[in-house]
Hints:
By secondary structure, the chain is an all-alpha fold. About 75% of the residues lie in helices and about 0% in strands. The chain contains 13 helices and no strands. The longest helix is centred in the first third of the chain and has 29 residues, at about 50-80. The radius of gyration is 21 Å and the shape is elongated.
Amino acid sequence: MRSDGDLTRGKIKRASELLFAERGFNAVSIRDIIEAAGQRNTGSLHYYFRTKEALARELVEDGVRRIDEDRNHRLDELEAGGGPKILREVIELLAYPYYVDDAFMRFLNRLMQDNYGLFLQGAEGQDSGFRRVIAHVRRLLPDIAKPILSQRFQLVIVYLTSKIALQSGSGPGQEAWSRFWNTPGADETLLDTVEGMLSQPVSAQAASAVTAKPKRARAVASG
């Protein structure tokens, strides 16, 4: 049975997640959270979480842990069957959290824009499933140099995060994007493009740029 304190903490966390998702971390005050959670004064937030920043970190920790545990569970099942055998299976594991149109993913997206350092603090050490995904992608794409694949991973995350912003945001053009995500095949096309971003043969220009020495280093060497 949950105590009154647990219930109060839960109310504050749920209210803050929704507010952060809707307005962004910086635009939400402690008073806003307390009122949305049905509490009487700001002291309750300070008592349970100390600061708004600590509250946000806990939200990140809780949500990223759930994603990581689920991703690890799915990987365990695939590996037990001898997989992942094809890149598409790994892509689905990489991208699946971004399909979820819930308050946590919207909150995470807004926090990464408003306070990326705070997001990193909450997510620290909660990426074992993601690292396993990366290892499988590298195994399935052995011909792509590690530095280039690392760059592609970073670009894929930006791409997938943008999907959340477009799906849940507001403003000019939002209605058109909402219609787009309801179009049959939109999510499958998203996966196609992620797979293409990772598996596209490396151009001569990219290979040359990645292996070249930094300009400063070349200048020192020539001098």
